[in-house]
Structure formats: structure tokens, C-alpha cells
Amino acid sequence: MKRNPLSLVKARPEPSFQVTFDGAPLDVLPGQTVAAALWSAGVTSWRTTRVEGRPRGVFCGIGVCFDCLVTVNGVPNQRACLLPANPGDEITTQRGDGHGAL
Amino acid sequence: MDLQPEACDLAIIGAGITGAACAWYAARAGARVVVLDRGAVAGGTTGAGEGNLLVSDKEPGPELDLALLSTRLWRELAEESWFGASAEYEAKGGLVVASQPDGLAALEAFTETQRRAGVEAESVSASGLAELEPHLSPELAGGVYYPQDAQVQPARAAALLLRDAQRQGATLHTKTTVTALIRGSDGRRVEGVVTDRGTLRAPWVLNAAGTWGGEIARLADVHLPVLPRRGFVLVTEPLPRLIRHKVYAGEYVADVASSSAALQSSAVVEGTAAGPVLIGASRERVGFDRTFSLEVARLLAKQAIELFPALSQVKVMRSYLGFRPYMPDHLPAIGPDPRAPGLLHACGHEGAGIGLAPATGHLLAQVLTGKTPDLDLSPFRPERFEDGANA
Amino acid sequence: MAHYELAVVGAGPAGLAAALTAADAGVRVVLLDGAPEAGGQFYRQTARQLHARRPQRLYHAWPTWERLRDRLAAHCSTGLITFLADRHVWHVEPGFAVHALLGPQQQTSETVTADALILATGGYERVLPFPGWTLPGVLTAGGAQAMLKAGLVLPGRRAIVAGTGPLLLPVAAGLAAAGAHVAGLYDSADPRAFAKHTSALVRSPEKLLEGAGYAAHLARHGVRVRFRQTIVRAHGSDRLEAVTAARTDGTEHLIECDTLAVSQGMLPHTEIAQTLGAALTDLGTVTVDDEQCTDVPRLWAAGEATGIGGAALSLAEGEIAGRSVAARLRGTLPAPYLKAQRKRRRLRAFAEAIESAYAPPPASAWTAQVDDETVLCRCEEVAAGAVREAVSELGATDLRSVKLLTRAGMGWCQGRICGPGVAGVAGCPQTPARTPFARPVPLGVLTETNSINERPES
Known about the structure:
The complex is a heterotrimer of chains A (102), B (391) and C (458). By secondary structure, chain A is mostly beta strands. Chain A is built from two helices and eight strands; from the N terminus they run αββαββββββ. Chain A has a single domain (15-95), classed as Ubiquitin-like (UB roll), CATH 3.10.20. Chain C has 15 helices and 20 strands. Chain C has 458 residues and is α/β, with parallel strands linked by helices.
């Protein structure tokens, strides 16, 4: 089997759970952040910018750049690279300032 | 770039909003203008301003007259294609609110005096407030709406005015510090400026150095009692259009007029074209202390949430501070200085500098071209603090 | 409000070493970090629930981490160290009160007070802008490594690692080991630059071995390594599809990839130090003396925040800071700690040599690639054209005036990411971002935070 990060460190992850991204179900390993969960599903952008509407995803990976902002369970502007994913989370593509509801 | 000897009618010290407005009106009137600043455009208090263009917070008197003139001039500037949208000018109007019936009564009495002086103002009931500002706290007693209040982005406004002034022949020298004034043989006359990049002779030198106006005045051996009055602004994350007008608590007027050195603070909240909400306003006389005050920030946040409860969940991203140029009688110094012929002042506008800039520039351009100014400038005469009796 | 003798902000190598050393001397310490576990970035831990049985394969010097981790656990069980994980420090008041937001949700705040403070706030990567750098798939080299360590995930299928700096080698090696197809490592540095610094380099042979190890690893995985090449453009419509690499002779070639892990060295986190009034060096790092003291009484700093130099240097500096605090709190002079001081000296020399050899390209070189449409400020989407206009037509002379006139640096990251890019294009010095809010804070939380510096009611 091709080497992958889990096999490299001989991980034995706890059972996966489901979240949704824009309504579509994703399998997530416990302990992964929302960004990691989305990357695992091949998703690399989950918001569009306020002025130009351009897609953004992870950039700095450590919570400094705020590019990876995402809306989870209706709460906008959370850094996906820091926020752990939880079972049943509803992750939605964030548009602009994320406060469309206000 | 060193100052080249150039023909100059008016040397302006300060490239903030006041210097920029003075440069623009003077250049338009045909003067050859050179603007000097030790830093960048809007490097001083202008860069820390919210962009308030208000008539609402002024009691009848010379400052209100200046503001009424200025607000009209701002509207004219806003119609210029090179200015309006680019300076983020918004004729959004101001809403002053009172939380208690007695505060509302005091506000309305104050408003009545303003109306007699030419200010447009409409009383707003508690339910009317909700229509004007859906996110405003429902616990307020009522307020007054001032359609003449507006907002602008102060740094951009100053920069755009200067750019257009340059199109009309003015010159701008940033990173150029004035170290002395050239004096005439009588020891009083001012005939130009000495800078760290060369000297410039000019029949008129304008002190538009804002909070540092007292230092420039000292170079001419005259006293101008400009003192810093510190203010903090909180800036939130970008938001959709939550707050439609400039909204502030009625207590704000008393704070502006206060001569106390202690902390005065009341809520001033507004949205911006770019998205963030600006939250002010605090006033303290603590010299030029740039230390952040968590206590002030907390108070500003509390007062803003009292007006707009939804702000509780909104994040503050940054905070900045500025030093308003404060004069003991809360009026700016505008006009020629008889103690140092050739020297003019346009500083000490305290928290109203942005709003009052075009009127200041317009009136000074009239003075420079020998016209009768549209407003009596004697309340603003720079030498008034040596009169014995204060104006 | 809980009170401690010493608060340490940051639980990376420097903060850990400082806290452990101080606790060894009996000081009561509170250690705060935003992550769920200690380790900082260098020892960023894999999520527990993933149960990595061979974690060392993702790290360098794993036994060093194990010792730190075990010492921390021991001190925590005696109560001498209180480790507050998931605490994002947003403001520190003089005196000191440390205000921290709880968890990634950041909806509540907690305050601890301490007599002394050590800032071990670490660093983050510098990325010089280029056309297309905002496409999803372009990320920092360290960010790719952080996501891999923490979540055991890869950014994509076909990666290029580029930029310059000592981080590129371990990142490329790590990605390759984890199964990514690393199509190449493109470093803009000139290997001949290393020859100028041989004496400083050879005095730290373990570091050279470390580098050689990564290089050998890359060779084994067939990762091509090229020097004096720069990525000048990223291509793609909504995500990265390819990059253009340029050689010094100007020739360019296109490389297909879905991931570009890029950076040019690191920058220190200094906003808390600045808010407390600590002086910074010309390089923007916190100025410290031989004991790692800043010029603010009872304020120390250690690690990347005092000068980028890697984990081993951070450990040495942390030890020295911890010792100094312990002694000074007791009113004594710290005993000379020759071993740590020697190590610090040697590793600082190594770091300076590396910094010089891996210097980012000068602005004159990289700004030529930045066309007016290239976004410089990612948060506010301010393009190079607006910055250029601010300088040439609107009277901007420094980062502050550029910010006021264009909004560059006013967004969520408060100029941390765009500082170098904007300064380069504007041709002005890169003054470090100053902000009293080290993290965004809900206004409601701000109203509930007690200040220890409240003035008496007048």
C-alpha cells in the first residue's frame, strides 16, 4: 500500500464520525481539525472573499493568517486549521464577512 | 528630495486634513502652495480620526457656524468625481439617542437651540428609532436625527485633496521637518521655513500642525496653547451594513465640551463602507501617552453594546489612538497671527478637525486673497489667549 | 484571579525550557499555549485520538521532546506548573495580567496574574507575494508540516516545496516520507553563500548532520533539489494547477502541481512584547540581554521571538531565562550557566550564518514579478497597484500611511502576513505590526475583563 501519513506513524485512529460540508457527508477522524477533515475529502477551499469573491483555504496552517475562516454550525469566522471537527458538525462555505444572517 | 528654491506664496506646515484642505482651497484660488510634513500624509491625528463630519454635536456659537459652512463644502467636494466615492464620503446622517426621558428632554432642548442656528434636526420617538436603526437597543427613550451629519475616510480625504492640489500646481514634501522659521529683520515677521532639507521663503507660512501646533508657534516665539486630548477607537471585524447612521449617546456633547482632564467617554458607533464598525469615543488629557488602556477599551465596548446589543458577539480586531488638538476654549485657531506677521494658524480643532477642514481652508483662502471671509474669524483669532479675557 | 510567581506565554521549546527550569528551582509557574498540547510548532503534537504509535517519524529529536513532556507532566502533578492549554493570549497588562481566550471558539476569556513574565511567543513564516499566491493549494511550508503533524493529512497529490530557508528541507522530507509526491524543492538560495560561513556552520555539526539527513532522505525519495530558482507565478482558476519557476538567467519553466509549500524564512511574534513597551531590534525581534531580560522590568523573552534560530537555540535561551527569573525573584544573581550559554552562543552564530546564506531575495528582485493586479494584503484583498498609487500619488511614506490609504494590513491578520510584501513594494522599512489585541476579541468578552490597572474613581 502506498505510504500515507497514517501508515507512516502507525496510527490507530479511533472510529471515524460524520460531518457535512455544504450538505454532503464527510468521514472524519477524531482529533482532526475542520481543515484536516476537509483536506482528507479533497476539499481545499471553503470560503470566498469579501471583495472579489475568490476562494480561500489553508495558508499558514497555524492560525496566524485567518485565510482558512469557515462557518461551522452557523458560527462564522472560525479558523478551520485550529477548530476540531465534532460529530454532526455542519460546515458551510463562508461568503464574505460570514455574517450574511445579520 | 531636497527642497528646490521655488516660488511660493504659501508654505503649509502639516499634511493632515487641515493642511490638505488649506492647500486645496489656496491652490484653487491661484496661490503657489508648498506643503511640508515631517512624516507621511495623514501621519498625525488625521490618521487616527473616525471621519466625523458633524453639526449635531455643536452648541450654537462660532464652532457650529464653522461646521455648518464646512458641511456644505464637504457636500460640494463629494460631488467631485475624483473625491466622493474614493474618499468614502457618505451623507448618512447622525442619530443622537438618549436612554432616559430626562436625558431626552435635555437633548431636545439642546436641539431646539441648534435649530435656531440653522441646524436641521428631526425628533425621533422610541419606535422611530427602531425604523432608522433596526439593531439599536429597544430600551432607549428616543433621539434626534441630524440629516446634515456625514462621514468620510479621513486619511484618503487628505491624500485626495493634496493630490488634486498638486494637479493645480501645489508641491508636497513628505519626510521633511521644519526646524525653524525664517524671521524678518524686525524679529517678528515670518518670511519662510527652514527644514532639514533646505529652506523655503514664502510671504505666508501656515501652521497646520494640529496637536503639535504649539511647537510650531514656539518657532515664531508665540504661544498657542494646543494640548493633546487622547482618544481611542475600537475597530471591529468586517460586518454587513448593521448600523446605517452615525449613532451616538447624548452624553457625547457634554464630553466634548468638558474641560476635565479625566476620562470622558460616551458611545459613538458607526459602520464604514469597508465593513468594520468604529467604536469611540474617549477623551483624556494624559499628555502624549501612547500606552494602551484596557480600562478605556472595556468602557467603549460596554457603551457600544448598550446601544447595539448585537455587538456583544462581534469581535474587535484592533484599536488605535490619537491625540486631538485641544484648545482651552474648545475653538480652533484660524487666521493670521498679529504677533508674527506672515504666520497663519489653522490648528486646534480638537475632535472636529476632519469636519471643519474645508471651511478652515476656504476661509483662509479668502483671507489670503484679500476677500472678506464668509465667517467672522475673530472668535478663532490665534492671539486670543493673551487678551486677558478669554473669548 | 489566580496568581503565580511566573507566567510563561508559549509552550514551544523556549517556553517549556523556561517553565521547567524555573519550576526546577521551585518557582510557581503558569504556562499558557493556544494548542491543546504543549510543543509549540516544532513539536506540534498529533491529535491524541489518532493514536500515532511511531510519532517520532514526523519529528526531529523526538527523545528531546519526550524528556520535556515527561518533565512537564511531573511538575504539573506536583502543582508547581499549571499548564493552561487552549488559551489564546489576547492581551497582557503591565504588572502582569495575562488575558486569554479559551479554545478555538474564543468566546470566553480568563485572566491570570504573575509577578514575572516570560514571552516565548515563537515565530511564523514570511511569504513574499507573487502572482497567484492566493490560490487554494498555495500554502506555507511550515503550514503543510503543521497540518501533517497534527492531523496526519497531506495538502494534495503533487507538491512543490519552494522559497528559501532551513525549513524547506525538513518540510519536503516530511511530506515525501508521508507519501506525498514531492515533485521538487526549489530554493532561491545560492549554495556558494554557505561557503562564506563555514566556521560558524561546522561548529554546530549536529545541525549539519541534520541537514544532510534531510537531503539524503530527499534523494532516496527521488525529490529533485534545485537552487537559485524562484517560483514567480502560480497558475489556476480556482485552485493551484501549476507554477512557473525561474532561474537566475531568466529562463522559466512550468511545473504542474496541486500544492505549493512556500516560505522565505521566519518572522517573530512580538505584539505582546511591544504592547508592554519592550524595545525591538532592527530586525524586529525582542531585545534581550545576556539573561534574556527585556528592558521592561520583570519581563523576559526567549526563543524565536528574540531571534529566529531554531528549536535547539530556543531550548538554551529558555533555560537561561528560567534560571534568571528564579534567581531574580529571590533577589539573587543567577549562577552562570556556562553550558547553556555556550550552546546559545554557538547556535546563535549558526543561526546568523544560516540567515545570511538563506537571505530572502532583495525587494528589487522579487517586486519585479509583482504586477499591479497581484494581491498583497490577502485579508483585505489590496493589490500592488493600490499600494504603488499610495506611495507615488497619495503621499504614503511608511507602512502606517500605506495602511491608512489602502487598507493593507487592516484585516484579520493585522498585517502579519502582508507586512514584508507591502514594505517591499512600497519601498519602506517593514515596521512590525503593532496591536494591543494579539487576537480578535468579542466585544462582550472585553466588557467582562477586569483590568489590574484601573485608575481610582475620580
